[in-house]
Amino acid sequence: MNKIEAFGYIVAQAERGDITFPTSLGPVLRLQLALQDPDCHVEDAIQLLLAEPQLAARTVALANSAAFGGTGTPVTSVRAAVARVGYRRLHAMVTVLMVRQFGSFVRDPLLRSKLAQLWEHTVYVAVLAQVFAQRVTFVDPDTALFAGIVHEVGGFYLLSRADEFPGLLDEDAERWGELCEDVVSREVMKRLAIPDPVAEAIGELRDGWLNMPPTSLLDTLLLANQYAPVPSPLGIDAPPLPEHTDSVLDFVLDEPTLNQILLEAGQAYNAMQAALLV
């Protein structure tokens, strides 16, 4: 099977809804879907967390991290972690863990290297999106964090399948990979029940342009992608921003503000990565 045939096969599967997730993702996916149910009771969420000891441990660790507002007295139980962060942030944390599971069984060293880079890029985009939301675009910061975590979910899925198709993600002058990733991303987000506003912003990201002043979730993701110090190995290329001198952007993002955003995001990145080592 050549590369184009492989892309076609994966896209056809995705469009049929035939999305295969790692078995290790099952408990995380069940919890993620439960948290989207407005009638989900806190006791149900706690029981789902406790059913997976590793997931429970990571949830407590993440609840204590600066990235998720963990300040003051540390929490030492799942119940306290859920009470501290609330359902919306718990949903974001579970999504972090869920995305991390993609490619967990990939053996090829080059693919694992790409997975590691994509994960670093994803976390940087997520924390930058949260801080840009707080300081520049004024969209909901928790939504921005969540959107950053899932903005490359199609890429994670493709990497998790690439072991089956040698050469699938080699250099691609005709950009079939981008088309495949866009289609797969859309279908994976449907399967994971990603909210429409988030899915729409991610769908527009590759060809999006920054509005002035930046005020939308898409603008937030574009800024986060532009300033993420680790690029995606699959390359959603952020359109270039104006030069940061005497530009319209300076009216909403001067140099001291940008430096402070990058500092805060770097601290949040370190906190999130440390928590995920549990």
Automatic annotation (TrEMBL):
InterPro entries: HDOD, RNase_Y/CdgJ
Highest taxon of source: Bacteria
Record-linked PROSITE patterns: HDOD
Domain HDOD: 21-208
PANTHER family: PTHR33525, RIBONUCLEASE Y
Protein name in the entry: HDOD domain-containing protein
